[in-house]
Prior knowledge:
Layout: H1 2-22, E1 44-47, E2 49-51, E3 54-71, E4 77-82, E5 89-90, E6 95-99, H2 102-137, H3 143-176, E7 179-181, E8 186-191, E9 198-199, E10 206-220, E11 233-237, E12 246-253, E13 264-271, E14 282-290, E15 294-298, E16 303-305, E17 308-315, E18 318-323, E19 325-329, E20 333-338, E21 345-347, E22 378-379
Antiparallel strand pairs: 1-21, 1-22, 2-15, 3-10, 3-14, 4-6, 4-9, 5-8, 6-7, 8-10, 10-13, 11-12, 11-14, 12-13, 15-20, 16-17, 17-18, 19-20
Family: Belongs to the membrane fusion protein (MFP) (TC 8.A.1) family.
Domain CzcB-like barrel-sandwich hybrid: 68-210
InterPro entries: Beta-barrel_RND_2 (IPR058792), BSH_CzcB-like (IPR058647), RND_pump_MFP (IPR006143), YknX-like_C (IPR058637)
Amino acid sequence: xxxxxxxxxxxxxxxxxxxxxxxxxxxxxxxxxxxxxxxxxxxxxxxxxxxxxxxxxxxxxxxxxxxxxxxxxxxxxxxxxxxxxxxxxxxxxxxxxxxxxxxxxxxxxxxxxxxxxxxxxxxxxxxxxxxxxxxxxxxxxxxxxxxxxxxxxxxxxxxxxxxxxxxxxxxxxxxxxxxxxxxxxxxxxxxxxxxxxxxxxxxxxxxxxxxxxxxxxxxxxxxxxxxxxxxxxxxxxxxxxxxxxxxxxxxxxxxxxxxxxxxxxxxxxxxxxxxxxxxxxxxxxxxxxxxxxxxxxxxxxxxxxxxxxxxxxxxxxxxxxxxxxxxxxxxxxxxxxxxxxxxxxxxxxxxxxxxxxxxxxxxxxxxxxxxxxxxxxxxx
Length: 380
């Protein structure tokens, strides 16, 4: 009997232990999106700091001559002589070519002869006119006789002289048009005529450009145009001419958009003493400007949903959603103009799984070192 009682007690103990082990203890409560202690999710945070954003734009443009001119013949004629070629350096007023002009030269000589005759007649009539004035004063001739024979002849001679002078000037002008001269200092960039060919006035015979300075023409949009200021210096790269970066000066900013391009032309002047920069070359304009000090967060910390820009701040293990107003950005950081305070911790990863009020488990928020914008992050 005693053995049966011991055996019964032993079985009861075994059953009691088995029943207790089969029960599962309740798991600790977790916030949505958070993992248990054994597999806790890691979120990276960055402390909001102050700094500057280096704004940068790279724009494409083409080189143009600062000053250029197309030389057109004002009168038709056969080319008698050429004095320059492509690449020739010329000065303002230098002769470029002459046209055959025998008939015009003869016209000038005839006009000169007519003028000489008119001058003689004028001199004689002037002398007679002055003598007639003396005769009128002494009453040797009547007033009518003076006006008819003295003053009248003088006036006709004076008119003939002016006409002869005008005719000569016209003949000389037509003759001078057969000599084409450069209107500016520069380099001949195009010659479209040869000796013996007939030159007309329908197209340019020469193109001349002043290449001591060139300009880069870039077209910018409405968000970019007001970033440029006359006199501002920018970096320019012309890889076809040099591997060195050049410094250009903004000289002209369009006040209205080009109606065809829907863009604002901006001109940037470059020195070109060695004339390595040629009109038509491709150029890159690099515009840079450092902003005033502002709050900075990494680009990956900022999300836009439904047209609203947000960041997520971690406060004592609780996620807080903040609407922010952002400003300029660079490759790493975004300027935050409002919505954050210095020193706050913003979350930079797993943003799609975050929402306002989300509680992260204590295990998720422990350990690690802080990360500043642009540096390596903390796992918290």
